[in-house]
Amino acid sequence: MRPRPTKNHTKKKPAPSPRVVEAVVQEVGARGDGLATVEGARVFVPLTVPGDRVRVRLGEAKGDGVRGELLELLEPGPGRGDPACAHFGACGGCTLQHMADDAYAAWKVGLVRGALGRVGLAEVPMAPLSRTPPGGRRRARLAALRRGRRVWLGFNERLSHRLVDLAACPVLVPRLEAVLPPLRAVLAEVLPDGATADVVATDLDGGVDLLLIGPPRLDLAARERLAAFAEAADVARLSWQADDRTGAEPVAHRRPVAVRFAGVPVVPGPGAFLQASAAGEAALATAVLENVGEAARVADLFAGLGTFTLPLAQRAAVHAVEGDAPALAALARAARGLRVTTERRDLFGEPLSAKELDRFDAVVFDPPRAGAAEQAKTLAASKVPVVVAVSCNPATFARDARTLVDGGYAFNRVYPVDQFLWSAHVEVVGVFRR
User: What pTM did the predictor assign?
Assistant: First the structure.
């Protein structure tokens, strides 16, 4: 027989009853909500900063606390600023426009420092925060909904499926912001009443690239209308796919599109992953290149389209490993004539072994948000002299960093990069040496 689970007799503090209270915000948590304490329980209050005195309606349980609805700002804290967007507060795309700039930058650095501190690595030297300015985001996934003759196009409200219809967006590059009004108009013609769709909008060399995901079917009239829109709005490439599981079909391809890494053009597939901003990409690539240094043989794991492979290939022989077939094919085509080899491999299920890694002078790895726990273990067992880790999630980065340090690596430096402006996301580059 299986042993019966023992009861947990640890007493938890009771959550406060649903009512309106006054509270003082003490800090901003990892997801951008202010944190206050009411009757011994943590209360998460969005749109607040430390020192704010607020009236809050207590709501449902959330993790180890309760959600709070901000009813009134009674007295502002010292780190409060003026939001840059009229949609702020309703639109869930940004969560931190209400923070003064210095307080916001310090909070972003604190996210990285806090994640490292939780695994005993808080004292690692940290470079200054690299930042993406307003109007710098070149890729976004927007949602659309048609009701009657109207189309809502934008981001969801915070913790809601309701859409905020964007009139403007100070985060997006101007070329993407400018395409929103004509895109909304054409979606009113091609979406059935009540239908939803997503649009991946990317600013590339050559112009705006749009991927329409949904509706499930697109007839000839809708295709012709979308092609006419692409011509009128000067969209370089427009594609459609029924859902996230199906492949993209071309609707209009008016001129070539590409993204350049170290001057090498790569043609991404419709909706392909790309670093969110050119400034963020440049900061990440600079940190990688500086710390790989003169290594002659480099492995680039989770290589994607070649964000780091192609700059590294200007000075080294690079082996690029990636699980996504279209991305790897685009990289391979772009890298012809360079010292680049490619390998398609699921690095989550089949990480490179320590023996395979030992032939490289440096390894770069840039996994998705889940991190690279298994690959970090084999790296920790390897003899690779230099490992440069790139991450979009400080928590999984810290976990993988701890694995490398426990395997004998010295954690030399960490670089925080803010390319998701006014959000709770921050990128990280870490340098590890034997």
Answer: 0.92
